[in-house]
Amino acid sequence: MEASRSDDVERALRALIPQTSDSEVAAAVLIWRAAERWRIVIDRFTVETEEDPAPFPDANRLLGVDPPAHGDGR
Amino acid sequence: MSEPPRLSRRDLLAGFGLRRRLTEAISSSRIPSDAPALVPHVRGLAELSQALMEHRLAPADVMGEVASRVQARESTAGPFTALRDPEALMELALDAEYAINMGGYRGRLHAMPFVVADSFAAADPLRAEPATAGSLARLNAAGAILIGTTRVIGEDVDGPHDSRNADPAWERGHMPTAAAVESGLAAAGLATDTAGWVREAAGLVGIVGLKPTYGRISRAELTPVAWSLDHVGILTRSVEDAALVLNALAGPDAGDSTAAPFPAPDFTASLHRPIAEWRIGVPPAHLIDRHHPDVHRAYFGALDRLATLGAVVVEVPLPGSFEPAAAAHALIELVEQSTALLSALRDGAAGELSASTRARILAGTLVDPDAYERAQRVRAMAIRELRALLVDVDVLATPAQETVMGGTASGALEFRTIFNLTGFPALVVPVAATGLPVGIQLITRPFEEATILTVGEAVAAAR
């Protein structure tokens, strides 16, 4: 199953960039497998959360803050 | 009646006796004999610039020393990818000296030797015409002298998340830039902090590393890795030096729409506040158990010193989002890097990219967009939880690194990437009293860098 998905991934990568070398495809598949593990960790955590995605890349919106009035922190 | 002959700038410089020092420094490639003790190796940016202001030292003295050090270092293995030649450096120093002597002093960074990592390579930092936006333009306006660009050691093909404890930490990231600053080749350095690399290198090498709040410093002219994670990081020899550099770089910038639109305070003004009664939150002690024993010892020693200074050190639970934050960070980085660079790969510019970057671009195209969106949900939750945590405490304190140079720490938690994900400011300060360098990482509320700079200065002074 995993091998067959990897074959699909390899075909998709070669279709995307035809001149991709074998070693680059192999490395990309390794990274994609890592990304699948990250996705599983994220899914386990977010399956029941209603949290809105973080807005970005505007710094104020990302952090949801106004500048500190006194400017020197604490 | 004929006009008197016009004196050229060179003639004026000769009148200040600078030509002699230029010749001496270049021809002998050694420290000018009249400034044997005033070298960056033993003094940071703050002390050097103070000596400059008081005319105890001239820019040409500093640059002569830097040029000879760089030449000596480059004869073996150096951290640089490009360097100005010694004569060009001395020309810039003489320009600075002339400007200062003519009343054109530009502030504490004037004539200070800087390095920037290849994170800025696309902007060609050493080009003749000055940058018009971003950190490079700010450095130029402040009169800093870029002596060269430094290497960035690439990621392992497994990506930043899985390779975290596999690659030796001292063989990746911004170690070359940190080493250049630590060894006195430059007074300060700038590099990208996308996955904690500036802070990790600072901890391992034993210098100060600052990742300001997302948006505090413009990222114009920075080669993007991941647009929502990239920060310009600062590497210096002291906390005061970091505050001085932040003063020069912080603030709005028309060249970067993500730069925060409000002005920054003077970060040096509040460095020496007493920290009695300040609340320092720390992770549960068992989460540090797998860190290298030297890291463990130095970190808890630093907490003891903070307590001695009157700070209230309290254990706080880690936010629930801490666990998936590293995965969310890694996935977002992969997708954003791939998105930013895919066109370059398609347009046949692959030869300009490293093999691991090309592989990451390809892999990023395979990630389900829903997974990216869910990673952003993790980010939103992490921001909310950290903000709540930082109501009860003023500062969070964690180890800056899992291990020391040459050591191992399998399975130890890393505490850096969550602050790239959330954008909160983080400062690393060296705290090891003996042995190999170890840093403590201090985190606080967005846009309140002054708070961690104050605590960092206190813990550094008590070392």
Between the first and last Cα atoms of chain A, what is the distance in angstroms?
A: 55 Å
Number of beta-strand segments of chain B? 11
What's the helix count of chain B? 16
Helix content of chain B: 40-55%
Name the structural class of chain A: mainly alpha
Question: How would you portray this structure in words?
Answer:
Chain A is an all-alpha fold. Helix content of chain A is 61%, strand content 0%. Chain A has 3 helices and no strands. Chain A has helices at residues 2-16, 22-46, 59-63. In chain A, α1 packs across α2 (22-46). Chain A starts with a helix and ends in an 11-residue tail after the last helix. Chain B has helices spanning 9-15, 18-28, 45-53, 59-74, 86-101, 134-141, 159-162, 175-182, 197-205, 239-249, 293-308, 322-346, 355-364, 369-392, 417-422, 449-461; strands spanning 80-83, 113-117, 145-150, 188-192, 208-211, 232-236, 279-282, 312-315, 395-399, 426-430, 439-443. In chain B, α12 packs across α14. With 463 residues, chain B is an alpha/beta fold. Chain B has an 11-stranded mixed sheet with strand order 1-3-2-4-6-5-10-11-9-7-8, sandwiched between helices. Chain B contains 16 helices and 11 strands. Chains A and B meet through α1, α2 and α3 of A and α7, α12, α13, α14 and α16 of B.
